[in-house]
Amino acid sequence: MGSRFGIYDLVGGLAGTSALAIGVSVRAQVPQPPVASGPLSEIVIEAPEPRFVAPTRRDKIGRIWAPVMINGQGPFRLVLDTGASRSAVNAQVAQVLGIAPDVSQSVLLRGVTGSLTVSTIRVNSFSVGDVIVTPAILPIVTDALGGADGVLGTEGFTDKRLYVDFKHDLITITHSRGLRALGGFISVPLEHSTTGLLVVRAVVQGVRVHAIIDTGGQATIGNEAMRQALVRRRAQGTPSEVIDVTTTAQEAMAFPSPPIELGSIQIQGARITYGDMHIFEHWHLTREPALLIGMDALGLLDVFVIDYRRHELQLRTRPGGV
User: Fold this and answer.
1) For domain 3-175, is the CATH number 3.40.1000.10?
2) pLDDT tens per residue, range 79-122
3) Would you call 22 exposed, middle or buried from its count of C-beta atoms within 10 A (0-12, 13-18, 19+)?
4) How is domain 186-317 classified at the architecture level of CATH?
5) Average pLDDT over all residues of the chain
6) Residues of CATH 2.40.70.10 domain(s) within the chain?
7) Are the C-beta atoms of residues 125 and 13 closer than 8 Å to each other?
8) Rg of the chain's alpha carbons, rounded to an integer?
9) Degrees (nearest 5) of the Cα angle 67, 70, 74?
10) How far out from the chain centre does Cα 66 lie?
11) How far is residue 74's CA from residue 39's CA, in Å, rounded to a whole number?
């Protein structure tokens, strides 16, 4: 069995460009959406395929797509990746824009399992909701996760509010007014991270965990320290394979997870894929239990809000809980 995660890390420009972005994915044995083909001038999706967001169900892992305008063209559908500090597009988008990839402005993508040098394109404008980046350097990725046109990272999100409504297939990105959560929502504070990651304190079966919110990841990944804390030595897991946007694969083992506690919310029924992943070492998260919480868990929520100005998650569960 395989898994994909949406985390990639742009760690250095070979021609002076540098940035941080995460793009790893874990591919589980679930039906995959078809790869986009044909003109990308507009988003036209027939039911039952969601236009922007899809919740997690037993037979399908949720995902979040955002409509992005590039150089006034689009919208292109990019998968939202809160673990990525930089956006990226695939070669087809570059072709539609009429921009040849620039090898002289290559960057190093550091994924969960490996790294890869890729070319980039320079665009005059990149916008989604209230986020406008001008100009922008966009890496070219081979795998944009689930057939999307690229990855939407979090550059320009510093003072924004991200609102994802799984029930109504809706995503909005607006300027944050610093408002408290509405009634019915649970607030979970975000910790400061020098790498720009969305880190919260979670608890799993009494074990305190550094949890990274990764909307680009299909599944939830734990480091070796967490496996040792939670999994019995003789427990039998399910063989899995973690694949990131660099297309590097790494073997792992998946186990049923105890409830994952985020504040007063418990996410139940998730599975955790464990492995000695490259990215945990890069983030210096090998000694203490750490998790990448992917869409298999996040997609069980009803509404998911990130207020970057307040450094806060605002979560509402589905009727009947998660």
Assistant:
1) no
2) 999 988 789 999 999 999 999 999 888 888 777 777 788 999 99
3) buried
4) Beta Barrel (2.40)
5) 81
6) 3-175, 186-317
7) no
8) 18
9) 50
10) 12
11) 10
Sequence-distant (6+) residues with CB within 8 A of 294 are: 5, 6, 26, 61, 214, 215, 216, 217, 218, 219, 220, 221
* pLDDT surpasses 50 at 47: no
Residue for token digits 């979040």? 64
Residue 59: pLDDT band (50, 70, 90) is: confident
State how far the Cα of 212 lies from the Cα of 151, in Å rounded to an integer.
18
Q: For residue 84, what are its two tokens? A: 């990525």
Q: Tell me the H-state helices in the chain.
A: 91-97, 224-230, 278-282, 295-298
What phi, psi does 285 have (nearest 5°)? -120, 55
Question: What DSSP line would sit under 93-139, residue for residue?
Answer: HHHHHT---EEEEEEEEEESS-EEEEEEEEES-EEETTEEESSEEEE
66: which 2 tokens?
């955002």
What pLDDT score does 36 carry?
41
Tokens standing for residue 277? 């992943």
304, two tokens = 């998911």
Tell me the whole-structure pTM to 2 decimals: 0.82
- Evaluate the CA torsion angle 223, 228, 229, 234 in order and state its sign: positive
* Phi, psi for residue 93 in degrees, rounded to 5: -65, -45
